[in-house]
Amino acid sequence: MSYFMWLLLSLFLLGGASDNCPCERPELCQPVQKERDFEVFVFDVGGKTWKSYNWSTVTTVAAFGKYDPELMCHAHSMGARLVLKGDVHLADIVDQNNRTAWIKEKVDLAKRQFMDGINLDLEQAVEAESPEYTALTALVKETAEAFHTQIPGSQVSFDVAWSPNCIDKRCYDYISLGKYSDLIFVMSYDEQSQIWGDCIAMANAPLEQTLNGYDQFLKLKIDPKKIVMGIPWYGYDYSCLSLSQEGICSIEKVPFRGAPCSDAAGTQKPYSWIMKQVNSSLTGRLWDSKQKAPYFNYMDNIGQIHQVWYDDPESLCPKANAVMSKGLRGIGMWNGNILDYSSNPVAQQQTAKMWNVLLGC
Length: 361
Ligand SMILES: *[C@@H]1O[C@H](CO)[C@@H](O)[C@H](O)[C@H]1NC(C)=O
Ligand SMILES: *[C@@H]1O[C@H](CO)[C@@H](O)[C@H](O)[C@H]1NC(C)=O
Ligand SMILES: *[C@@H]1O[C@H](CO)[C@@H](O)[C@H](O)[C@H]1NC(C)=O
Fold this sequence. Notes:
Elements: H1 3-14, E1 39-44, E2 60-63, H2 69-77, E3 81-86, H3 96-112, E4 117-120, H4 131-150, E5 155-161, H5 174-180, E6 183-187, H6 207-219, E7 227-232, E8 234-239, E9 242-243, E10 249-250, E11 267-270, H7 271-277, E12 286-288, E13 293-299, E14 305-309, H8 313-325, E15 330-334, H9 345-356
Parallel strand pairs: 1-2, 1-15, 2-3, 3-4, 4-5, 5-6, 6-7, 7-15
Antiparallel strand pairs: 8-11, 8-14, 9-10, 12-13, 13-14
Helix pairs in contact: 3-4
One 2-acetamido-2-deoxy-beta-D-glucopyranose (NAG) is lined by residues 92, 95, 98.
């Protein structure tokens, strides 16, 4: 057989699958097939800090940054999936042809980039029984079918708010979303997105409220083995309009989706920033025994008082333990990049603790 014939035959046998494979070993471009019992689902927003992840625990990385072939090869070498980000304006995919075209585009992109599925992150307001409500369910069903058929072993996940109770006006058909997707990623953070009571700074993810959200999903009979708990590796920095003697920080009224007040009054800060700021704070780390969360107050350089609420290994520990006790599929975080991955020994210790608490404590 001539070299040319051999080349043609090889291309035919490989089905073009390893064309342009950027990895050192072509088999690393194969989609990940193996399921692991416990999911550790990491959102990656770009850059190279993924090199410092604890890869012995990571099972899925959702690529929310720019496509990084080096990340794909590395994830595959560690048996971890790399999945696309999927977002589309729901009004545009009520139309079946538009929906099919969108799904095809995503499957083709995933194949071209040797990826292992898609994370659907729509977060749009939807009224129950509206055309968008039906279209969303159809989108998840059809996306899962297309991916599973065309990329064997691929994973289709869907991000939901901390509770299925129309949070942020997301009145989705959660039962069907649970049925058709491989995983539901519950975003147990931004839980003060709609503040109906006193307009004050509170925890990003109070323990009781967080766990109550899972009980609501489980009450809908969503398979616990499809539910991944999402925890925050960030907190909220609020500028206090006033700080009461009891330490209550009242915040500006910023409405959100019908609620008069919201965490949008604050700014999100990464754990790496928080760990530096707490040392130069007015109070040092305080603990709220009702919300089971740490916080502190600091003064900025123009004399304004701030209150910062966040999660650390102590507040995350009972959440991670609940993943085990409720028999959920796993845990994940927004996002993997926002720890301090520098060589500072204090930072290294803090970062290792944040990774290790994912598996419970
Ligand atoms: C199809 O999607 C495009 C955007 O991608 C949008 O402009 C158009 O209105 C949609 N068509 C229908 C019939 O929904
Ligand atoms: C913050 O303070 C703690 C305790 O005082 C100390 O161990 C740690 O090194 C400090 N962290 C940083 C980032 O300076
Ligand atoms: C990575 O995670 C594993 C499993 O939890 C743990 O045993 C190991 O110590 C971690 N590695 C580092 C560098 O923290």
